[in-house]
Design a protein that fits this description.
The structure is a single chain. The protein is an all-alpha fold. The chain is about 40% helix and about 0% strand. It has two helices and no strands. Helix 1 crosses helix 2.
């Protein structure tokens, strides 16, 4: 079974991220989200196809300047939680 997830953009207001940091966050989100959706026990048969204009993944506690990798992983986990509902 194939799962297609398209995230047009992630808005991170007020974070001091450079373009290089943004690229690292994007890569970490892609990797973590792909990994979290293919783990054993994930049941995509229960998921419903959806096209939604906006998803609120809740809030994530952040350091003043969060490292891009962990930030991306936290974002992906929050998105994955929303997708699996």
């Amino acid at each position: 079974m194939k799962i297609h997830v398209h995230v047009e953009r992630i808005v991170l207001d007020g974070l001091p991220l450079s373009w290089k940091d943004a690229a690292s966050v994007r890569l970490a989100v892609q990797r973590e989200l792909a990994d979290s959706l293919r783990v054993p026990g994930a049941t995509p048969s229960n998921w419903k196809p959806a096209h939604v204009p906006r998803v609120d993944a809740g809030s994530i506690p952040l350091a003043r300047k969060p490292p891009p990798g962990p930030l991306g992983r936290d974002l992906a986990r929050a998105l994955g939680d929303v997708i699996r509902k």
